[in-house]
Amino acid sequence: MDRISQLRSLLLEHPEDPFLRHAMAMEYIQTNRDREARPLLEANIRMEPPYPGSFFHLGKLLERSGETRQALETYLRGMQVTEASGDLHDRDELKSAWEALKET
Fold first, then answer.
1. How confident is the model over 64-86, as pLDDT tens digits?
2. C-alpha distances in Å from residue 66, one per residue of 11, 22, 47, 71, 84
3. What residues make up the domain containing 7?
4. Which SS3 state, helix, strand or coil, does residue 25 take?
5. Are 45 and 58 in contact (CB under 8 A)?
6. Are 75 and 55 a contacting pair, CB within 8 Å?
7. Please, which residues have CB within 8 angstroms of residue 66's CB and are 6 or more apart in sequence?
8. CA dist 44 to 19, 47, 99, Å?
9. Angle at the Cα of 54 from the Cα atoms of 49 and 55, rounded to 5 degrees
């Protein structure tokens, strides 16, 4: 059974698990299946509290899709979420991506 099949099976058992959704999205991204990854990442950032790691990857996906404004908004919201939770490493990573995209 390949990794995507394994994750799909686990997600059927635990559909609300943000780590599993994130892992599945990363597998889709690695196989150039952004359309399938996007709803998983979006679900993770709509959670309460949002899943911090998904902001960066959703932002990059939006950049690849040419959705610059949405990518900037995603990075900015991710910076706010990670700042509020004290996750300074992820905040700095999001800030770097936001600044780099803003300069283009």
1. 999 999 999 999 999 999 999 99
2. 29, 22, 25, 9, 29
3. 3-102
4. helix
5. yes
6. yes
7. none
8. 9, 5, 23
9. 85
Q: Quick check: 44 and 50 in contact, CB under 8 A?
A: yes
Question: Is-contact 94 82, C-beta < 8 A?
Answer: yes
Q: Give the domain CATH number at 92.
A: 1.25.40.10
CA 84, CA 79: separation in Å to the nearest integer?
Answer: 8
Domain count, the chain: 1
Amino acid at 59: G
pLDDT of residue 92: 97
The answer to whether 28 and 5 are in contact (CB under 8 A) is no
Q: How far apart are CA 1 and CA 72, in angstroms?
A: 37
Tokens at residue 78, please? 């991710």
